[in-house]
Amino acid sequence: MTIGFVPQASSALTSPASRTLEPAEWTDVGVPLLASPREVVKDLHARHLPAPSTAVVAVYDPDGRIRASASFAGRGGIVDGWEHRNALLSHLRRVIPHDLRLRKPVRTAVLMVCREGSPGWTPEDGAWMWGLRDACTLHGLRCGSYVTLTAGGWQVIGENRAGRTPNSASWSRAKTDPPPLAANGRPHTLRHASAR
């Protein structure tokens, strides 16, 4: 008689390769379409000024208003969605309480990743998409769109909607703009709000 755990017959369920989504799988998730993707991207870009290797996660109310958002540095080259899911959950927990008590998710999370390279899908994007889907499930949110922001512009993966501005180089131009002046002539202190 043996006591212990029996190894699983298939390691595909736990392998890092299975924690990624292809674009076809992403469309099967049933992600709701953004009503105005250009406005969403512009708003998130203006709030967080993401540089390459930055992820921005935002939570929207059913009426389309942003409820909370957070930006953080993502580690490049990771193709395992587990790590991305953990990072997303950590930041979601900091900016908004979970909705696990609701019967159906009401709020929607959208993820925008600013990165180098082509605007099309990459295996790293697949890991981010898996992480977003899983983090939404664990936080009681609807899984929303996944947007890439590259030097060529932005693209909503799975929706074939894209634009040229803002892009991954836009942050450097915005950072060099002079700070706004207060009534006394001194510059305002710039703050990034993560929750509204």
Describe what you observe in this structure.
The protein is of the alpha+beta class and 196 residues long. It has a single domain (36-175), classed as Cytidine Deaminase, domain 2. 29% of the residues lie in helices and 19% in strands. The protein is built from five helices and six strands, in the order ααββαβαβββα. The chain has a six-stranded mixed β-sheet with strand order 2-1-3-4-5-6, with helices on both faces. Strand 3 (108-114), helix 4 and strand 4 (142-150) form a beta-alpha-beta unit. It is globular and about 50 Å long. The N and C termini lie far apart (59 Å).
Total helical segments? 5
User: How far is the N terminus from the C terminus?
Assistant: 59 Å
Q: Which parts are unreliable, with pLDDT below 50 for 5 consecutive residues or more?
A: 8-12, 178-182, 186-193
Mean of all residue-level pLDDT scores:
84
Strand content bin = 15-25%
Here the CATH topology equals Cytidine Deaminase, domain 2
Please give the largest β-sheet. 6 strands, mixed
The 3D shape can be described as: globular
Order of helices and strands: HHEEHEHEEEH
Relative helix content: 25-40%
Instruction: Round the Cα radius of gyration to an integer and report it.
Output: 18 Å
DSSP strand count: 6
> Could you say what the CATH architecture is?
3-Layer(aba) Sandwich
Instruction: Quickly give the structural class.
Output: alpha+beta
